[in-house]
């Protein structure tokens, strides 16, 4: 009995398992049927046909399917044509963009060259101006040096004249101091100062004019002071001229550096400056601007 019970239990369990599997398959079938029904409804909506006809008429389904495939094929061909035309237009547009960019770059270079030419001409003019200025300063310095040399000689002469007059005044003062003693001298008698019996100036007086000598000394002193002031001012003027000349030399060096920089720019652009270069560049600029307008 125990064995029989176990057998029956096992069979019951197998039956339940089979029933569960059957129920699961039925549920799966229902889900598939619902899915198929939904897809059929979708196809009916796409093909715009009755769902019942779609279910029962396979020929109609095939016809509509072929029709849609044909329409899709035509659309595909049209798309390929449009893509081909678009590619051609894209290539043309790309070429135009490249040409436009090249034209703009060319115009910028032309503008830079025109500006460089203007600067080059200005620098060249300033170089010539500074060279002329330096030459003028050098001539003025040369003249001023010559004047100062002559003025120094004149001062030396005045100083010598003044010294001579001062020595003369000293002698005259000395003679004047002994005038009263000279009047006391007698012929053939010894001089009470030197003991000499000969007195050559006893009978006539010496020509002594201390006031005149003093006036001449004053005159020479004034002249010396004035000439010294003139020489001092000349030396100041000479220093100013030398300073201006040095500044012009420095400016000339800067101008030459600027000129060299511009020439190097011309060289990098493979451009040779000529008398008509600017006019030629202006013509190129007008032509480039016209081409740019056409491209835009």
What descriptors fit this protein?
86% helix, 296 residues, rod-shaped, mainly alpha, 6 helices
Q: Could you tell me the mean pLDDT?
A: 79
- Inertia-based shape: rod-shaped
- Beta content comes to under 5%
Derived from helix and strand composition plus strand pairing, the structural class reads mainly alpha
Order of helices and strands: HHHHHH
**Biggest sheet details:** none
Given as residue ranges, the uncertain stretches (5+ residues, pLDDT < 50) are: none
Q: What value does the Rg take, in angstroms?
A: 64 Å
Range of helix content: over 70%
Q: Please, could you describe this protein's structure?
A:
The chain has helices at residues 2-47, 51-56, 58-177, 179-183, 210-268, 277-295. The protein is mainly α. Helix 3 packs antiparallel against helix 5 and helix 3 (58-177) runs antiparallel to helix 6. The radius of gyration is 64 Å and the shape is rod-shaped.
Spell out the blueprint of helices and strands.
Elements: H1 2-47, H2 51-56, H3 58-177, H4 179-183, H5 210-268, H6 277-295
Helix pairs in contact: 3-5, 3-6
Question: How would you sum up this structure in a few lines?
Answer:
This protein is mainly alpha-helical and 296 residues long. The chain is 86% helix and 0% strand. It is built from six helices and no strands.
């Amino acid at each position: 009995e125990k064995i029989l019970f176990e057998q029956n239990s096992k069979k019951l369990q197998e039956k339940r398992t089979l029933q569960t599997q059957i129920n699961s398959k039925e549920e799966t079938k229902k889900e598939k049927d619902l899915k198929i029904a939904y897809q059929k409804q979708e196809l009916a909506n796409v093909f715009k046909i009755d769902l019942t006809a779609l279910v029962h008429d396979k020929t109609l389904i095939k016809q509509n399917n072929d029709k849609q495939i044909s329409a899709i094929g035509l659309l595909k061909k049209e798309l390929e044509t449009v893509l081909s035309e678009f590619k051609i237009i894209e290539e043309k547009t790309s070429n135009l963009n490249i040409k436009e960019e090249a034209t703009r770059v060319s115009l910028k270079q032309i503008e830079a060259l025109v500006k460089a030419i203007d600067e080059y001409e200005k620098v060249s003019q300033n170089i010539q101006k500074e060279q002329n200025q330096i030459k003028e300063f050098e001539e003025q310095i040369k003249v001023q040096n010559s004047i100062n040399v002559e003025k120094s000689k004149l001062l030396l002469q005045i100083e010598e004249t003044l010294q001579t007059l001062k020595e003369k005044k000293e002698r005259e003062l000395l003679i004047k101091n002994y005038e009263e003693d000279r009047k006391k001298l007698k012929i053939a008698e010894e001089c009470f100062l030197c003991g000499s019996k000969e007195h050559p100036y006893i009978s006539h007086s010496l020509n002594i004019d201390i006031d005149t000598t003093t006036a001449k000394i004053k005159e020479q002193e004034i002249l010396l002071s004035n000439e010294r002031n003139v020489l001092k001012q000349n030396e100041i003027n000479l220093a100013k001229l030398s300073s201006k000349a040095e500044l012009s030399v420095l400016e000339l060096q800067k101008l030459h550096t600027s000129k060299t920089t511009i020439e190097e720019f011309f060289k990098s652009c493979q451009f040779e400056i000529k008398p008509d270069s600017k006019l030629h560049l202006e013509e190129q600029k007008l032509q480039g601007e016209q081409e740019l307008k056409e491209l835009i």
